Amino acid sequence: MRLLLRLKFDKLGLHRIWRARDPQNRPSARVMTKADMVEEGRIRGHLHLKDG
């Protein structure tokens, strides 16, 4: 993950990367945190699922 982020920022010149995850997916949250990604907010009402 860190290698991919470095490639995107350093080689491709990007200044922001967007990623979404299920709020209940704690392992994904840990990966994002370890890669120094910052959670900026939540998208509400994007997907309509029968179990919430």
Structural class: mainly alpha
What oligomeric state best describes the polypeptide chains here? single chain
The rough form would be described as elongated
Q: Roughly what percent helix?
A: 25-40%
Separation, N- and C-terminal Cα atoms: 29 Å
* Largest pleated sheet: none
Strand count? 0
Helical segment count? 2
List SSEs in N-to-C order: HH
- Beta-strand content: under 5%
- Given as residue ranges, the uncertain stretches (5+ residues, pLDDT < 50) are none
Radius of gyration: 13 Å
Mean pLDDT: 84
Protein name: GNAT family protein
InterPro entries: Acyl_CoA_acyltransferase
Question: Could you please describe the fold and organization of this structure?
Answer:
The termini are far apart. The longest helix is centred in the N-terminal third of the chain and has 10 residues, at 2-11. This protein has helices at residues 2-11, 26-34. The chain is mainly alpha-helical. The radius of gyration is 13 Å and the shape is elongated. It contains 2 helices and no strands. It comes from Nonomuraea corallina. InterPro entries: Acyl_CoA_acyltransferase. This is GNAT family protein.
Write the layout of secondary structure elements.
Elements: H1 2-11, H2 26-34
What is the structure about, briefly put?
With 52 residues, this protein is an all-alpha fold. It is built from 2 helices and no strands.
Keywords:
52 residues; mainly alpha; 2 helices; 37% helix; GNAT family protein
